[in-house]
């Protein structure tokens, strides 16, 4: 059985036996074109997954998971099948690849992994790069199951936040699980403004802040299992209690992309069953909107200058 995280030396040996997908995506401020970079240089045999194209178009929220039919059609168009394991990577190291890993898991793909450290790690390991014009993909058969159980919405997250509030008020043990926010500390605390317009500052009440970048080394590879465990514990997430009590972990971020990095870490390195994990797909792009001020509360950790 393929692990959820694989490393570049292993991929070099197994390249002919797997399907490789580049799932690179960048924040608009980075002014990078992931498809153009893919066409310029990629892992041999890789196809390109566009996180801005394979989405639920019925909402204005970014990157929302499409239904099974649309996802199935998109993956088939890439020539990806269930016949061979899938390895996903991105050009940063570990940023957006975990999102596609989770999307694939949510529709029932079992043999899928993320390349630890992404394209930089591949280059460091001496892996070849393909710079020829990408070949046109031959449509394949790809079957997707309903992914809805793997994602949650604002209403259910509000219920979770209220439940955690009541447990804290009564000094009761945690029976509701945890809400983990993968955004940078500055945005979580409310010090830094959101990069998207008309957004509030702060975080969902009772969320725990585990910035996805804290789980990675400078090269974009995951830290050790022990370091990751300390990071979760230091933010008040009792992983042993989560596993023993079968408590749910809900992951959030700016728009549902980097939330999948701590989720992947929890599953691969801390032993949390994937079935206990869920992504708040709308994340802060949904919850933090100024238009939701009357219904979705926000907590600000830091003292900030009122605008």
UniProtKB/TrEMBL annotation:
PROSITE patterns: RHODANESE_3. Keywords: Repeat, Transferase. Residues 14-131, 179-293 form the Rhodanese domain. InterPro entries: Rhodanese-like_dom, Rhodanese-like_dom_sf, TST/MPST-like. SUPFAM superfamilies: Rhodanese/Cell cycle control phosphatase. GO terms for cellular component: mitochondrion. It comes from the Eukaryota. One of its GO terms (molecular function) is thiosulfate-cyanide sulfurtransferase activity. This is Thiosulfate sulfurtransferase. It comes from Hondaea fermentalgiana. The lineage of its organism: Eukaryota, Sar, Stramenopiles, Bigyra, Labyrinthulomycetes.
